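Researcher: Next entry in the queue.
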Amino acid sequence: MNTIRLKHGIWVLVADGEKALFLKNVGDTKFPNLEVVQVLEQENPPTREQGADSPGRYNDGPSMHRSAVEDTDWHRIGKERFADEIAGRLYKLAHGGAFDSIVLVAPPVVLGAMRKKLHKEVEEKIAGEIPKTMTNHAIPEIEALLQAA
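Model: Structure for this entry, 149 residues:
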């Protein structure tokens, strides 16, 4: 993995399935100073709190045997929808010239879902990716972790 240089003006997206922080480095490479530009949040409780009924059942033919149908993973679907929303926001920002380069920081699953939805205009501006969950960290911790990456 190449070293990520947090040059002045670079953007950093720190996201997970429920929260996205759009940060901009107003410092320099040696002393990054990330400022929050925008925050997106989505309420995405665990599937057990989102499901309405017990999983469905179906007949296995002429016998009395019935099998369960796997329950929908609403939490995962929520994360995928949020990744779509983030990708859409990144496109609008990139298209509007808000950033020249960006570093994406998200858990591997969210990063993968986001990557599938990113527009070519955004892909061209990605300076690096870090597959980690950092949304619960304070900004100085994020700066330190990015410098160590």
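Model: Residues 1-40+77-149 form a domain with the Nucleotidyltransferase; domain 5 fold (CATH 3.30.420.60).
Researcher: Noted, moving on.
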